[in-house]
Queue: 2 jobs
Job 1
Amino acid sequence: MAPSSWSLVFGLTFASVALAATYSVADTYIGQAFLNDFSLQAIADPTHGRVNYVNAATAAKANLTFASSTNFIARADFTTTLSASGPGRNSVRLMSNKQYELGTVLVANLNHMPEGCGTWPAFWTVGANWPNNGEIDIIEGVNNVGNNQGTLHTSPGCTMPSSRSQTGTAFQNDCNTAVNGNAGCGVGFGSNSFGPSFNANGGGWYAMEMTADFVKIWFWARGSSVPSDVSGGSSSVNTSNWGTPVAFFPNTSCSLSSHFGPQNIIINLTFCGDWAGSVYGSDNCPSTCTGEHAYQLSMAEVLKAA
Ligand SMILES: *[C@@H]1O[C@H](CO)[C@@H](O)[C@H](O)[C@H]1NC(C)=O
Ligand SMILES: *[C@@H]1O[C@H](CO)[C@@H](O)[C@H](O)[C@H]1NC(C)=O
Ligand SMILES: *[C@@H]1O[C@H](CO)[C@@H](O)[C@H](O)[C@H]1NC(C)=O
Ligand SMILES: *[C@@H]1O[C@H](CO)[C@@H](O)[C@H](O)[C@H]1NC(C)=O
């Protein structure tokens, strides 16, 4: 796999898939495929960001999306000085045309993610009719923090046990979007998992496995001990060998099959807004909303249950 790439691993929704942790490739996206198989959504930001999501033609013309044979880059405009009273910064929001059911593993290999004061990038999945079919935030953070947050957002009746087998730190255990301003049941990741420190370290790999029994998220920083089926762009993976996840969301007190429908993958980058804006000052950011902002990724593969 190319170094600045990401991949998707997909498993079919067999009843046994939660027990069988082996998946094989079903779909692969590389370079231009991100433009063919994802749609750019020129929509208003529901989280009130200072952003202007543009369509595919505008993004291509402004080089906000760029595909080579091995890489895909998605970014926001970084040359325009904005007026405080005018529209927000041009940026992109990509959604996969395909949906993925429980029984899916997604592996992302990124060289670089957006960074800078005011940035609020996210790499996540969401079902239809939010929040009834769930949301899984795999990569999310704001400003120049160094630690990722992995979070589930659901309809009422989905909580996580306070004690569970994960290396990350739980912030809140109720996933209900109506609780605590839609904070969700988030888990904090370790160093180099987000922002400038992630980029300075050369990026890394994220993986998410979702089944009827659990959702798990792993992160391996570049240069760390990463499973070969993750780093190698393997045609099959065995998640049983990946060790304790950073974030573990078991179905102990949450029926994942009723809170999570088929998921679209979304890659977005907004600025300021409900989260980045509210903690902007406390993250030692200056008075204006600017930032650097490219996702550098290039490959996606989708694998099915073996
Ligand atoms: C961007 O991603 C975050 C992911 O958590 C989401 O909360 C937010 O609504 C997204 N904004 C848009 C416009 O997609
Ligand atoms: C578009 O972006 C790519 C990747 O950053 C860069 O190599 C290329 O030169 C840019 N094209 C233009 C016309 O600026
Ligand atoms: C997956 O890995 C586990 C743990 O190492 C092992 O027990 C199992 O046999 C593996 N499955 C396959 C199909 O190789
Ligand atoms: C958890 O998942 C298992 C296997 O799919 C299922 O048998 C069990 O009923 C689920 N528990 C809850 C609380 O949904």
Job 2
Amino acid sequence: MEKKYRRETLCVQEGWTPKKGEPRVLPIYQSTTFKYDNSEQMARLFDLEDSGYFYTRLQNPTNDAVAAKIAALEGGVAGMLTSSGQAANFYAVFNICESGDHFVCSTAIYGGTYNLFSVTMKKLGIDMTFIDQNASEEEIQKAFRPNTKCLFGETISNPGCEVLDIEKFARIAHRNGVPLIVDNTFATPINCRPFEWGADIVTHSTTKYMDGHATAVGGAIVDSGNFDWDAHADKFPGLTTPDASYHGLTYSKSFGKMAYITKATAQMMRDLGSIQAPMNAFLLNLGLETLHLRVKRHCENAQRIAEWLSQNDKVAWVNYSGLPDNPYHALAQKYLPNGSCGVIAFGLKGSREEAIRFMDNLKLICIVTHVADARSCVLHPASHTHRQLSDEQLREAGVAPDLIRLSVGIENVEDLIADIEQALG
Ligand SMILES: *Cc1c(COP(=O)(O)O)cnc(C)c1O
């Protein structure tokens, strides 16, 4: 779209602009392959001299329309969909880190990302140092090495609900000549656009609020186009020196602001193949069309429930940045002035068993390994998603052993409170 529209309009209309006689609704291009008239046309695609579709493992028109919508919402230059949020975070880092490199990461991140970075990527020879995101700049600086290639954090951490000081992180990253990558899954671009605060790359698990209905696992990477790879050419040879697998093409020279995302598509996706199915991209797009309405309702309901929980004497603690006495309240007011998300972390007085009894008593709110969809749900990370971690690792990741993660949906809030009340007994 030509004009700069506001977020609500982008949610509904961006990405697919049909021409005369074409479908009004984004079609599902359920085709692995695309036809050309002669061999020369096809050859130019393989040399990245023309843009176009040839095989869905690299690019598909349905996916590209949805990626363009997400990129517009984030205010980036381009985006790419992946098969899952895990794939998005892996590609986002692996696109600029290779064996022998190192990166720095907040401990307050999703459990799956924690395992990916601390176990699986180490096996690829990529080293990583965890830091406390609330530490001073001087303290965080100590984790940086000459071979450090990026800094990583989550806008609002899953499941600890810690709010990231994005400007501080951006300053540290840029002082060290590396990009800041922010996983913006929980905030969504409706509540926060990390690029406005200096982040360079944004990732998403679109499985969460973006899809919003728990129908399709997916991920996305968005490039701000702001990081100057050539200014730090020695650190990023993958972007600034010729790629032998594309006849010696250099991404930063040929694609400028689109260098990072082009490499992610043309090299990472070509070789590793975690493409999102076009059918899932279609479902994701339906979710995105109402993202602005749903996120607002999730936040309103969560605020009410967080206030209610904090008044209840069976509740030991509540972590929701919308509460005035919350340690992240000031950061949330700066970065998330319209609301944070629908996820509340809280603990009950008594033992771990108390948490399990409470969850088993819930009727409307279900126990599921999911978060951030229309239906309210609950999870006990210490006995579910994070069960591989010791109590000490749990605390390091901002997850208290008694933490209950309540994902507040878009149902009637009085019905939700009634369910919580009866389950508390
Ligand atoms: C769920 C989640 C992921 C992983 O996404 P999947 O789509 O489940 O692979 C990554 N980051 C955050 C913040 C998440 O909540």
